[in-house]
Amino acid sequence: MSLIPASMPQDLTLTDEVLGDVAVIHVAGDVDQVSCEPISARVSASLEQGVSTVLDLTAVRFLGSAGLSLLVAARTTARLFGAGFVIVADKPVVLRPVELTGLAPILPITSTLTAALSRITEPT
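Request: output the structure for the sequence above.
Response:
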């Protein structure tokens, strides 16, 4: 049984990549209430197996409140299952909502995939 919903919103693309022992999930499009389910399922499936995971949001065009909740839940799941978790974000469309809501100090965010891979072994 797949944890990924059969259909994804048309404006959302998820791409998986494995780099060493780290899962990288690239997200492109809008991260809102409609698109959060498939993203959350993919991230949770990885983290719940104890796999360190990088969530690449560099191609995200919009980050809504549901997306912010997803990021906090992913951090919590990572801690619960002992997996590393880092977010890659380099544009105001993602960084601004994180900063405005006061989540910046608790979310592990880097601006590049290289930096995320270097940081992934640190506790989240």
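Helices lie at 36-47, 65-81, 92-100, 113-119.
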